[in-house]
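Much of the work behind modern protein science is quiet bookkeeping, done one molecule at a time. The fold becomes a row of whole numbers, each drawn from a learned catalogue of backbone shapes. The protein below has been through that process, and both of its lines are reproduced in full.
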Amino acid sequence: MQKNIFLYILCAFVFSASNNFIVHEGQLIEENTIIVKFSNTYAPLLGQEQPLTIESINAFKTIQNRSSFKSLQPLFKHIQNFTELHYEHNLHQYYKLTLNDNSNVVNQVIADLNSINIIDNIELNGVAEALLVPNDSLYSNQWDHDNRRQAIQYGTGNLVGTADCDLDTDEAWDITTGNPDVVIAIIDTGVDLDHPDLIANIVPGYNFINEELPPDDEYDHGTPCAGIAAATIDNEIGIAGVCPDCSIMSIKVLDDNGFGDWGVIANGIVWASDNGADVLSLSLGGGQYQEALESAVNYSVANGSVTIAASGNINTQMDFYPASYAQCIAVGAMSPCCERKQGINSCDAEPGWGSTYGEQVDVVAPGVRIFSTGKRAGYWTEFNGTSSACPHVAGIAGLMLSYNSNLTPETVRELLRQGADDIEDEGYDIETGYGKVNAYNTLMLIPDPASGDLNLDGEINISDILILLDNILMGNYNMSGDMNSDGIININDIMLIIQIVLN
């Protein structure tokens, strides 16, 4: 058996829906929806909440455009039982009226509804946009962040995609853009250490191919992976990474031709975990099981490092390592149309590769026509493969740990699954796992670190106090445990959490 194993570098090097929002009378609105406020006397009374329906409203029968009505649902649909405070603020009166697919009748429907005395107010369902819009010159091309159907179809030049089929990173950035204390290790062919879009985030790494040299990238694979995960944001050049304020650690385990053996890779995993890497991104792999490599993965996870690997580009159901190891978070690739990448059969029509699938796949992420950083200060315009999908998830993991550093690798995996948008077959499936990762949804699932439950066991007790004390003694001055939100962790935070425990 050859000592060196050819690893399928998961960038394929293949060179090769409809929009929910419309502009109506100068404003961006959700297509075919109206917000209706029923009168207080007509809306359900406190303790008698039986949601209104189109059929239950006699006054609707006289409306000319009643046939345009598709559904009527309470606007605040997550409130199961209204409280007195809900009623005080009129939340029970608001409903979302969805029309059939004919936005041309919106104005007439509004006019008809205004003629009914059971309605207090009618308004279009306006659309808000995230406040943070990066000024990076290539950001508008990054459909993975903001899919506006701007991806270019292979061979035709046509624009393809499904609007909003993206990571919702722009919404996530309003919560956090990362933390330099969170380190993402790119275990790959190295990273361009002087790239202007990466240099501000680089921390010391290691070159396992030639220990006398820095872990630089001559193959141009690790560099685009690093850019996807954590390229600098708002610097007026290049791209925006998923976790732009996270740190990047370059671990070179593949040579300048893209080859590496399992032993070297295993060493790189352990070294990165031992030297402060919180997230390990592995856009590499092969079809051969190796126990030593699995032991390294198991160690890294036990040591607190979230370990993420690409599922492979073989376009079939099979085991692919390290992604298939139980402790790895396995990431498949999707097209701009929210489907598993399946060669020419995907909407992008790019031939030659498809995302490997199977029971090991946890989630999928963008993997087609991805813009990213390239070696020698360059940029990719079509970095493809599960190689590009994997660092997207690594970046999201970085955002999660930036928001709450006490998340365990197991919790990160579970929250990624829960926060994913279901695509293709309903529920979990072997093609796309739990669905498309969603940065914003996932962050919203994370308990607020200022709640006091630092170990996320559902209780606030002496264990949480000890964690906070350890954070102070170790100089871990990040968000986690900042009970009074003053930007530092000190005795004042301990006093607050003690008060919570006593109460």
Observations:
- The longest strand covers residues 27-38.
- The first helix runs from residue 84 to 88.
